[in-house]
Amino acid sequence: MAAAGAWEPVIGLEIHVQLKTRTKMFCRCASGYGVGGGENTQTCPVCLGFPGALPVPNRQAIDWTIKLGLALDCEIASRAVFSRKNYFYPDLSKGYQISQYDLPFCRNGTMIVPTEHGDHRVGIVRAHLEEDAAKTVHVGGARGRIGGAEISLVDFNRGGTPLVEIVTAPDIGSSDEAKRFLQLLRQTIVELGISDAEMEKGTLRVDANVSIRPKGSTELRTRCELKNMNSFSYVARGIDAEVARQIGVWESGKELRQETFDFDGASGTLTPRRSKEEADDYRYFPEPDLVPIEPSAELIARLRAELPELPATRIRRVEQALDLEQSMVLVSGGLDRLWEATVAAGAGGKAAANVIANNLVGARVDPSAVSPGELAALISARDRIPRQAFDQAIGKLAEPGFSAAPYLADEAVSDEALLEPIVDAILAANAAQVEAYRGGKTGLLGFFVGQVMKETGGKANARAVNDLVTKKLAG
Ligand code: ADP
Ligand code: MG
Ligand code: ZN
User: Fold this and answer.
1) Domain membership flag for residue 313
2) Band of pLDDT at residue 1, cut at 50, 70 and 90
3) Residues 397, 438: one domain?
4) Which of 40, 41, 140, 310 has the highest Cβ tally under 10 A?
5) What is the pLDDT of residues 377-393, one digit of tens each?
6) What value does the mean pLDDT take over residues 331-341?
């Protein structure tokens, strides 16, 4: 078997984000995000690539790209250039994609990702703006893939929609770290309001470049690329599968070949796509129909001032109080601000994290509509009020003017002085069961507790009743 301990993964990610601008990147057609009207209705001479049609850049998309770049601590170009990336494919009617090459908007950024062994810096090589290709739909083949398809159709509605491509340095050291990086990046994008960034819908797409090296070395070996993973868990699983495969190749004394794979998350299989031994030659050159863009210092300052405190920063604070996994659930779910305010209002850190991550999410409560003070009051009383009342209160937390007080008034009776006469009466009325219990049928405990709960109309604290009944039966 492969000695996984002797190797370490090296991972770099390429991420595409579809911006949620109202219109496309270089024309006024409505952009993506479930535009109605059916296939090929949101098109014009520009996004269909008619000769002579002139592109006009989308201001909003440029501002958002710069904003994302600032959030990733990038240097913003004082002069950015759109370039043509030439290739042929049926979903690219112009024969080239307008992208960026040597002068992208954003470069040399960083995102700090927490790991079990402390914070880890992941370099952002670049973030650039480009237009998306149209969508090819393969009909009649397996799983919508081109192989075996009877016909392929093209929908140009997606053609020309704005995409930001983010490229990381090969700085990521495990599949878990890759997943955490992606979760924090996604939450950042969502909080900036520039994209819904949903992998299942294709508004966030991730390609993972994977190689391995002897643990502790700094060399970069041949890498392979994984595509078509449509959830963060599949990305992590795909990386694990590819790392295991590469360990097998190197340890059998063979040379690893650079390849691209589709990872099928459901079956866990890697299917080779095409070998990529030579770099593609796209013949990039500056787009002659667009002038270079020179973002002003004022614009950059304004966008920087608009940045909220970011997930990657917040998690380092949350992590002081909670474990990494719990911190990730809160921060990547946009729940940590409510958690922090609830703790400040007096709730315990772990209890608040549990209730917010499980009960609130389970009940689909909008965290932004919750009063931290009321939530803290509920959490602090959690063990003393009936479960039912607690759940009911959670479900209503986001209602306007919600108050925890009526539910707290329902506080369960755990006072022994109040419970004792009831317990005594129940035991006296069930002498045969008491005898059976003392004779070894300890499973009857639940019966007695149930009788007491019934007698109190469910107001008794079950744990207190349990303790008291156990004590009485023993004595
Ligand atoms: P290309 O020009 O072929 O696209 P890049 O240098 O732009 O290659 O890198 C593309 C992606 O591959 C980046 O995310 C980078 O971090 C990653 N990468 C490059 N070399 C390696 C390697 N040896 N192992 C893992 N990932 C790598
Ligand atoms: Mg590349
Ligand atoms: Zn158009």
Assistant:
1) no
2) very low
3) no
4) 310
5) 999 988 888 888 899 99
6) 97
Residue 342 in domain: yes
Residues 76 and 151 in one domain: yes
What's the domain range around 424?
416-474
Give the model's confidence band at 438: pLDDT under 50 very low, under 70 low, under 90 confident, else very high: very high
Distance 133 CA to ligand 1 centre (A): 22
Q: Do 30 and 79 share a domain, yes or no?
A: yes
13 lines ligand 1 (CB under 6 A): yes
> Range with the lowest mean pLDDT among 3-7, 171-175, 177-181, 243-247?
3-7
Evaluate whether residue 323 is within a structural domain. no
11 alpha carbon – ligand 2 mean position (Å): 14
Give the residue, 139 or 427, on which the prediction is more confident.
427
- Protein residue whose Cα sits closest to atom 3 of ligand 1: 279
**pTM metric for this prediction:** 0.86
Kindly give the distance from the C-alpha atom of residue 144 to the centroid of ligand 3, in angstroms, as a whole number.
Answer: 26
CB 9 less than 6 A from any atom of ligand 1: no
Angle between helices 324-332 and 175-192 (to 10 degrees): 30
Which of 390, 408, 426 is at the close of a domain? Answer: 408
* 375 or 264, greater pLDDT: 375
